[in-house]
Design brief:
Layout (H helix, E strand, L loop, with lengths): L5 H15 L4 H68 L23 H6 L3 H7 L8 H8 L8
Subcellular location: Cell membrane; Membrane
Protein name: Sec-independent protein translocase protein TatB
Main location: membrane
């Protein structure tokens, strides 16, 4: 590209100082710097977009190869399964006529009912009272009234 050394940059600076003048040179330099920065950002964005499109194309190619491989595997599994079903049907063809037919189906499993009320009722009330099990719920106000310490004035 351009081979800009220190001597060429100094020559450009001197020519710009003479042509533009010392009053306008800082403003022109700032404007030129911002334009160069915008150009560099634009070039970087274009490079990034090109890289993304190349990556996208690679991903599409990889997706196509994976889809073809999956189709091949699915097809081979289906052919193997159909071959197995044919062999199984041939093998079991003579066995099914020899077995006697079941008249009644086997009984289905029934989950035993567990009645928790009976289990809770089995514990006597005196044991619950001694163990400190609450049998009745108290509201907050009733609990405060029940457990409030007695004042010395009422004795």
């Amino acid at each position: 590209m351009l081979d800009l050394g220190i001597s060429k940059m100094a020559l450009i600076g001197v020519v710009a100082l003479v042509v533009i003048g010392p009053e306008k040179l800082p403003r022109v330099a700032r404007t030129l710097g911002s334009l160069i920065g915008k150009a560099q950002r634009y070039v970087a964005d274009v490079k990034a977009e090109v890289n993304r499109s190349m990556d996208l194309e690679e991903l599409k190619k990889m997706k196509e190869t994976m889809e073809t491989a999956a189709r091949d595997v699915e097809q081979s599994v289906q052919t193997t399964a159909s071959d197995f079903e044919k062999d199984w049907a041939q093998t079991t063809a003579g066995l099914t006529s020899d077995l006697p037919a079941l008249e009644t189906p086997p009984p289905s499993y029934k989950n035993p009912d567990k009645n928790w009320r009976i289990k809770r009722g089995a514990m006597p009330q005196w044991y619950k009272a001694r163990a400190g099990v609450r049998t009745k719920a108290l509201s907050g106000a009733a609990r405060v009234a029940r457990y409030r310490p007695k004042s010395l004035n009422t004795l």
